[in-house]
């Protein structure tokens, strides 16, 4: 831990650059908390989702699925809450054509057609929504997620993969052409002080981004502190039975080396009495700690009560996680100085 005076001197020079990579519902929680900090935030968002409203829009007009991007834009927007609620509003079941679609998803899809690509559309929308930071789709075209399971079988598409309820061995992404991230994505990774992976679905929200060839190469070359925010609970169809060390090992194996510098893991007891017993075997089980497994991968461990437990659900405490991320980013800035 650095002294307050040293940290203040670093902050006066420039804000720490924090890049958060992922998708799903966990990402906005961390981004909202980081937004309260004095940091330059870049969110790199997965584009392989094929479920829900995003999947329907993707199938109809072949654009990058907009759902995760929509949630990230809202989390970093400086617009009043009432205006952000409009962007998040979903049509109800009485609307036969629009049922289940979020207005924001339709706006992103329309802008993508108008601009000719998703990246420029998101930059335009970021300006309109007064986004504090940068939001970059990890690719400019929809990606298809592929998986091989431990039994040797394979599946294609996020929904199809997770519905198999098999242990996943590896994943990769495909597209009409070789998948490639925009230059801004690579520049953000290479210029970051800290890169944050997660929280989020290991195989369907985090790894799809890293499997884009130039993103994976940038992750191997960057000098940034690479931080993994480990999920608190296991996830059906993806991480049943995996420890925190297993999560880190799988990311490292996909990148081809020990590239996770620090893991933020939960040390608080989860009150399982609030969950239904029939869920215990798969979905709602706490991720077990394996300190020796993490140490063997040269991974520093920061353990704390990172939970926000309410209404029978478990979330990450965004503020606690963000504080650790900023501290690590400042340490990296100071080392470079």
UniProtKB/TrEMBL annotation:
NCBIfam families reported in the protein's UniProt record: CofD_related (TIGR01826)
Keywords recorded for this protein, A-Z: Cytoplasm
Q: Which GO terms describe its molecular function?
A: LPPG:FO 2-phospho-L-lactate transferase activity
The record's subcellular locations are: Cytoplasm
A Pfam family (short name) is CofD
PANTHER family (UniProt xref): GLUCONEOGENESIS FACTOR-RELATED, UNCHARACTERIZED PROTEIN YVCK-RELATED
Give the family per the record: Belongs to the gluconeogenesis factor family.
Organism name: Lactobacillus equicursoris DSM 19284 = JCM 14600 = CIP 110162
What role does it play? Required for morphogenesis under gluconeogenic growth conditions.
Signal sequence residues: none
Taxonomic lineage of the native organism: Bacteria, Bacillati, Bacillota, Bacilli, Lactobacillales
Which Gene Ontology CC terms are recorded? Answer: cytoplasm
Note whether Ubl conjugation occurs among the keywords: no
Q: Any keyword Metal-binding?
A: no
Biological process (GO) annotations?
A: regulation of cell shape
Protein name in the entry: Putative gluconeogenesis factor
């Amino acid at each position: 831990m650095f002294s307050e005076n040293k940290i203040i001197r670093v902050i006066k020079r420039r804000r720490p650059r924090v890049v958060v990579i992922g998708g799903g519902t966990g990402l906005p929680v961390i981004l909202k908390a980081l937004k309260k900090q004095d940091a330059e935030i870049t969110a790199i968002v997965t584009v392989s989702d094929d479920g829900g409203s995003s999947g329907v829009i993707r199938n109809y007009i072949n654009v990058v699925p907009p759902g995760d991007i929509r949630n990230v834009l809202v989390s970093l927007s400086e617009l009043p809450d009432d205006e952000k609620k409009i962007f998040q509003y979903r049509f109800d079941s009485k609307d036969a054509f629009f049922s289940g679609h979020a207005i924001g998803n339709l706006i992103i899809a329309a802008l993508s057609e108008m601009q000719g690509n998703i990246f420029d559309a998101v930059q335009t929308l970021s300006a309109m929504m007064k986004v504090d930071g940068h939001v970059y789709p990890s690719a400019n075209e929809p990606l298809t997620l592929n998986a091989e399971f431990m039994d040797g079988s394979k599946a294609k598409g996020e929904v199809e993969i997770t519905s198999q309820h098999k242990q996943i061995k590896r994943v990769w992404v495909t597209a009409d052409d070789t998948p490639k991230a925009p230059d801004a994505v690579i520049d953000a990774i290479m210029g970051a002080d800290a890169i944050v992976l997660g929280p989020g679905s290991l195989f369907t929200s985090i790894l799809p981004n890293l499997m884009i060839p130039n993103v994976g190469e940038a992750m191997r070359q960057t000098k940034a502190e690479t931080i993994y925010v480990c999920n608190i609970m296991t996830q059906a169809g993806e991480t049943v039975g995996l420890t925190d060390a297993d999560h880190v090992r799988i990311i490292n194996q996909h990148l081809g080396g020990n590239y996770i510098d620090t893991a933020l893991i939960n040390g608080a007891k989860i009150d399982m009495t609030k969950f239904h017993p029939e869920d215990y075997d798969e979905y709602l089980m706490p991720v077990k700690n394996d300190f020796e497994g993490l140490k063997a991968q040269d991974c520093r461990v920061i353990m704390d009560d990172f939970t926000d437990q309410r209404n029978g659900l478990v979330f990450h405490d965004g503020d606690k996680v963000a504080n650790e991320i900023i501290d690590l980013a400042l340490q990296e800035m100071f080392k470079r100085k």
